[in-house]
């Protein structure tokens, strides 16, 4: 069974259609790039999978279930910007995740914080923006989830931080789980992707395994993306 | 999961509320000393008299601040935690929307009660051994007995407290429903929330007027002449409680529906 599946999924905001009849399947154990320019519908799709939005038409299923309390137990979500409560300390944040998620590996989180020299007693509001984003990623990747939904995890960070973030994702995700990485920075993530989904104006325009695509077209995914989305 | 939400909600809010209570009680104790000074001697140096008056003013400001901060805290927590960026974390926790709303309602109710207790304690502390405040307390007590007759104070107090708890829940839910509806829009979220709050006030006032008139016409609460005051009191409390329960249920449904179907965390 697909870990994430949508059937005729549409979402409108007023007269604007953010997603229009999207059909997709993400199989377990795959790292999938959800690739598209800004405003293409990537974030809307991820929000729908998290139950943060309700579809206008069609359906989205996580492990065969509509988003709800049960699916939230197996989905680990990284929002596009840092959203952690800034009054907490890093240690309190780890306690918060451990309280609510049975699959949270606190030891793994503490090890990653130690490697980044994040003081667990420091208030989050006193950390730099980059460190706050890394801290949030640490919390998300310390879960042994079945599906990781990462919305623009490398957007707005420097190249060194991008490498750290991708390393953290690759070295911490549960290999039987799936990871969906939404981004428009293709060249940075291309090396880790098993499958790619191109999305534009709320439609899926291409969906294929990354290696197959590269072989067929003799180009990198980044080059294909630039051709497909040429302005 | 509700227990865990309550634990984190209490942690988040007690950082502000507990120091505030501490400050209020400190000002009350100092005001008590000042009032003893003002009461006990007519020959105080002018600077001491000024300090005493400032402390008295500070006490009154402190009392008002506790009330305002409790209300402000409740609004801010709901908005920041569920309707803005932190909402991305809170709404992806494996808990139902009902648990999220109840956690906020229960904790805000708790802070209302603790604020009321802190205010009573601060007044008692301020008035301890101060003669004229004690005299005023006596006068109010005698007045109460004269009006209410032989009904036990504790019964009246419990009825009043029950209605006050319901009123607190109703107020919380009216603010939450206004915020939930206002934040479903993409622009001017706070402005719209305020407008919706005013609209709710108007709506519930109209509904209360209509239903009260209807109940009066139907004579559902007959009041005997010999126990007129206590009868009227009981009828008023019963009516208030009934209205508050119905309105709170409506507001809860509005809040839950909008947060489930019209969440907009831009």
Q: What do you see in this structure?
A:
- The complex is a heterodimer of chains A (231) and B (266).
- In chain A, the strands form two sheets. In chain A, strands 5-6-7-3-8-9 form a six-stranded mixed beta sheet, sandwiched between helices. In chain A, strands 2-1-4 form a three-stranded antiparallel beta sheet, with helices on one face.
- Chain A is globular and about 50 Å long.
- The longest helix of chain A has 14 residues, at 159-172.
- Chain A is built from nine helices and nine strands.
- Chain A is α/β, with parallel strands linked by helices and 231 residues long.
- Chain A folds into two domains: 4-74 and 145-228, P-loop containing nucleotide triphosphate hydrolases (Rossmann fold); 84-142, no CATH class.
- In chain A, α3 (90-100) runs antiparallel to α4 and α5 (129-141) packs parallel to α6.
- Chain B is globular.
- Chain B folds into two domains: 1-148; 149-266.
- Chain B is 84% helix and 0% strand.
- Chain B is mainly alpha-helical and 266 residues long.
- Chain B has helices spanning 2-40, 46-83, 87-90, 97-127, 131-148, 153-182, 189-218, 228-261.
- The mean pLDDT of chain B is 85.
- The interface between A and B is medium-sized, with 24 and 24 residues.
């Amino acid at each position: 069974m697909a870990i994430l599946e949508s059937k005729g999924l549409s979402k409108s905001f007023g007269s604007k259609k953010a997603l229009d009849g999207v059909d997709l399947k993400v199989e377990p154990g795959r790292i999938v790039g959800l690739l598209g320019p800004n405003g293409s519908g990537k974030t809307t799709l991820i929000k729908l999978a998290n139950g943060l939005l309700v579809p206008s038409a069609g359906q989205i299923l996580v492990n065969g279930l509509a988003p709800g309390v049960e699916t939230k137990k197996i989905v680990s979500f990284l929002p596009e910007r840092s959203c952690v409560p800034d009054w907490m300390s890093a240690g309190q944040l780890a306690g918060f995740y451990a309280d609510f998620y049975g699959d949270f590996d606190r030891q793994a989180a503490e090890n990653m914080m130690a490697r980044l020299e994040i003081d667990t007693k420091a208030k989050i509001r006193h950390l730099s923006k980059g460190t706050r984003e890394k801290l949030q990623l640490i919390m998300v990747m310390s879960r042994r989830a079945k599906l990781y939904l990462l919305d623009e995890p490398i957007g707005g960070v420097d190249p060194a931080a991008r490498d750290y973030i991708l390393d953290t994702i690759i070295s911490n995700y549960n290999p039987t789980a799936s990871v969906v990485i939404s981004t428009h920075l293709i060249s940075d993530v291309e090396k880790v992707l098993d499958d790619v989904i191109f999305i534009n104006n709320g439609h899926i325009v291409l969906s294929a395994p990354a290696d197959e695509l590269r072989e067929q077209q003799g180009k990198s995914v980044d080059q294909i993306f630039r051709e497909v989305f040429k302005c | 999961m509700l227990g865990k939400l309550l634990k984190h909600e209490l942690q988040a809010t007690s950082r502000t509320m507990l120091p505030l209570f501490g400050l209020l009680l400190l000002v009350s104790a100092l005001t008590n000393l000042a009032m003893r000074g003002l009461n006990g001697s007519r020959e105080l140096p002018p600077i001491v008299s000024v300090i005493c008056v400032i402390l008295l003013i500070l006490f009154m400001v402190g009392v008002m601040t506790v009330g305002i901060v409790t209300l402000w805290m409740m609004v801010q927590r709901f908005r920041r935690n569920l309707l803005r960026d932190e909402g991305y974390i809170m709404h992806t926790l494996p808990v139902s929307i009902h648990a999220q709303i109840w956690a906020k309602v229960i904790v805000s109710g708790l802070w209302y009660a603790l604020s009321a207790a802190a205010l009573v304690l601060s007044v008692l502390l301020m008035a301890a051994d101060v003669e004229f405040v004690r005299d005023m307390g006596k006068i109010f007590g005698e007045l109460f007995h004269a009006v209410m007759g032989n009904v036990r104070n504790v019964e009246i107090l419990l009825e009043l407290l029950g209605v006050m708890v319901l009123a607190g829940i109703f107020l919380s839910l009216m603010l939450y429903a206004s915020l939930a509806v206002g934040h479903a829009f993409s622009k001017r979220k706070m402005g719209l929330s305020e407008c919706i709050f005013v609209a709710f006030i108007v709506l519930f006032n109209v509904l209360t007027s209509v239903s009260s008139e209807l109940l009066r016409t139907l004579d559902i609460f007959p009041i005997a002449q010999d126990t007129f005051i206590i009868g009227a009191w009981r009828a008023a409390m019963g009516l208030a409680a009934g209205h508050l329960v119905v309105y709170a249920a409506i507001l809860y449904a509005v809040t839950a529906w909008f947060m489930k179907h019209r969440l907009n965390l831009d």
